[in-house]
Design brief:
Elements (H helix, E strand, L loop, with lengths): L3 H39 L4 E5 L2 H14 L11 E3 L4 H10 L5 H9 L5 E5 L6 H12 L3 E7 L11 E5 L4 H27 L1
């Protein structure tokens, strides 16, 4: 490596440019996602999240912010990441197909009051696409968090938030920023609801 400082600076510059494009183009979409999550919680539904790899970590983080807390000291809110049940994941993957791991869980756990966030940086993960379709078939409102062109996931959901980048790392960075923004909106909603 001949210029580590230049390489690191370039990564930060790419992050800032992607963050600016995401803010400029998707601010109202983030607000809409926050409103949809709050509406689901308000009608007694839950947040259901899932994804693979880094997107699985983001899905778990999102659910944990609701069952734990973000900033506001509040009671737990109903949320589940379908990625945390290793017995279900391995059983479904073994007995059926890895592509079915989220679809079978979504069919079992999702309903019309729920809000589902399916996460895939490329939008091409078959397991995530099938899970999104299964949740929609159960009547849940389904959102995609994705990037690039949105892949097949954007077409399998009711609404897609597509980060304007084709680089996985930049997309993941924006997904966690979006998740944190939505968590702040949820905190505001709980504070208003509870007076």
């Amino acid at each position: 490596m001949t210029d580590p400082a230049g390489r690191v600076a370039a990564i930060f510059d790419e992050h800032l440019a992607t963050a600016q494009r995401t803010r400029d183009g998707l601010l109202s979409v983030v607000e809409e996602l926050g409103a949809d999550v709050c509406a689901a919680l308000g009608r007694g539904g839950k947040l259901v999240t899932f994804g693979n790899g880094g997107s699985a970590a983001d899905a778990q983080h999102f659910a944990a912010e609701l069952t734990g807390h973000f900033v506001l000291d509040r009671g737990p809110l109903p949320a589940v990441a379908l990625t945390v049940d290793t017995s279900a994941l391995t059983a479904i993957g073994n007995d059926y197909s890895y592509a079915d791991v989220f679809a079978r869980q979504a069919t079992a756990l999702c309903g019309p009051d729920d809000l589902v966030v399916a996460i895939s940086t490329s939008g091409k993960a078959e397991s995530v696409i099938r899970g999104a379709r299964a949740a929609a078939d159960r009547g849940a409102r389904v959102w995609a968090l994705t990037g690039g062109t949105g892949g097949g996931l954007k077409d399998a959901t009711h609404r897609a938030l597509i980060v304007p980048s084709s680089e996985t790392a930049r997309i993941q960075e924006m997904h966690i920023t979006v998740i944190h923004a939505v968590c702040a909106l949820i905190d505001d909603w709980v504070a208003a609801r509870d007076g």
